[in-house]
Amino acid sequence: MEKRKPVYKKIPRNGKNGITNLTEYRYKKGVYFIYENGKLVYIGSSASDLYKTISRHFQNWKDTRQLRRISYRQKLGKKSYTFSVKLMPRHSKKGIEKEEYKLVNKYTPRDNKLDLYCNITGSDCESKVSKAKELVQKKKKKKVSKVKIKKDDLIDDVPF
Predict the structure, then answer these.
(1) Distance CA 44, CA 112 (A)
(2) Residue 153 per-residue DSSP state
(3) E strands along 4-159, which residues?
(4) How many C-beta atoms surround the C-beta of residue 45 within 10 A?
(5) Contact between residue 135 and residue 80 where contact means Cβ atoms under 8 Å apart
(6) Taking 50 as the threshold, does the pLDDT of residue 160 lie above it?
(7) Whose CA is closest to 43, among 125, 121, 128?
(8) % of the chain with per-residue pLDDT over 90
(9) pTM surpassing 0.85?
(10) Which of 117, 137, 136, 133 lies closest to 125 in space, CA to CA?
(11) What is the pLDDT of residues 117-158, one digit of tens each?
(12) d(CA 107, CA 69)
């Protein structure tokens, strides 16, 4: 994982855009971590463009395409935001998502606990933390069900 950096070099003010420290992550993929005043508050991932994905957390949203979004825009200037990235250039989208869920399950960040993952009607919402925990537990159950055959268990009465 890379060293933490401030999200902005210059914080946006009066409706103007700020200058971010995210440009080097354009078109790169991996898992990202957002910190508020030094405390981990969110873990996410992108399989195509970390720059766009992270910067969306610091924009205002007026669209209704997604029922809920995590945005820190209103808190800029009042709180300090930093981020770090775990680049995963050779991983598939599924591999990156798997790593994200593993990390969310391990650290349970505050904003990953919110019920943001809903079906199309808005019912049946769950948090990324509960989703990650469920996926990790399924994986453990699969490992437990494997049976190893011992050499002593084999039948050695085949006639030759």
Answers:
(1) 9
(2) G
(3) 5-6, 8-10, 19-20, 30-36, 39-46, 81-87
(4) 23
(5) no
(6) no
(7) 128
(8) 39
(9) no
(10) 117
(11) 554 444 555 666 677 777 767 665 555 555 555 555 555 554
(12) 20
Cβ-contact 12, 76 below 8 angstroms: yes
pLDDT greater than 90 at residue 85: yes
CA distance 159 to 157: 6
Top-confidence range, 9-23, 80-94, 96-110, 117-131: 80-94
145: tokens are: 């069900």
| CATH superfamily for domain 5-142 | GIY-YIG endonuclease (3.40.1440.10)
Contact partners, residue 144, CB within 8 Å, separation at least 6: none
CB 11 within 8 A of CB 76: yes
For residue 122, is it left (φ>0), alpha (ψ between -120 and 50) or beta?
left
